[in-house]
Amino acid sequence: MPLDQAHAIRDARLAELHPQLDAALRGRTRLTLEVGCGHGHFLTAYAKSRPEELCMGIDLLEDRLARAGRKSKAAGLSNVLWIHAEASLLLQALPPHVRLGPSIFVLFPDPWPKRRHWKHRVIQPAFLSMLAERAEPGTQLCFRTDYAPYFTEASAVIIGHAAWRVDVADTWPFEEPTVFQSRAESYQSITARRR
Q1: In sequence order, which residues have a C-beta less than 8 Å from that of residue 135 and are 6 or more positions away?
Q2: What pLDDT, on the 0 to 100 scale, is given for residue 31?
Q3: Is the distance from CB of 40 to CB of 82 less than 8 angstroms?
Q4: How far is residue 137 from each of residues 79, 134, 141, 165, measured CA to CA in Å?
Q5: Residue range 135-187, pLDDT digits in tens
Q6: In angstroms, what CA-CA distances link 57 with 28, 47, 100, 191?
Q7: Residue 114, exposed/middle/buried by CB under 10 A (0-12, 13-18, 19+)?
Q8: Nearest C-alpha neighbor of 103 from the set 129, 135, 77, 81
Q9: What are phi and psi of 134, to 5 degrees?
Q10: Which residues are catalytic?
Q11: Which fold does the domain 29-194 belong to in CATH?
């Protein structure tokens, strides 16, 4: 795809996201975010356990978001939103008064195992900087994967980022197995706090 066409698609998506987020987040200043929410199992359970928090799950696949919406509706939840968005575009489109916190979850993202595809991995220095710009101090970033090489790389990126502090004593804030977690033989987790 030519670069100008890719920019036009990005600009059109941003133009759609701005009013959608402005309306959904009117009067709200804080947001728990799950990047790549899949079918919404984790975030629905999380939102149910924390009715005082506004939660948002984003994903690239609309059918997943529809299933997530049905789950949260069946649970009677009014504190969870499902948005069709790519993570960096969502962060650009968030209203300026909205901060991320107390948690950001990135659970079992696509590991893009082939080296030539690593540039597509979500945990990258630039993305961590974007998250940090929108996160309140103390916000916990929670990353989990079942692909050991990605965990090694992502951990190094998180540990090496100036805006995030890893404390091995920090605990995982909420457990609810995702579909990928229930299928995994094993997985690894890391948490970090916004400085």
Answers
A1: 99, 100, 101, 104, 141, 194
A2: 97
A3: yes
A4: 22, 10, 11, 11
A5: 999 999 999 999 999 999 999 999 999 999 999 999 999 999 988 899 999 99
A6: 16, 10, 12, 19
A7: exposed
A8: 135
A9: -100, -10
A10: 110
A11: Rossmann fold (3.40.50)
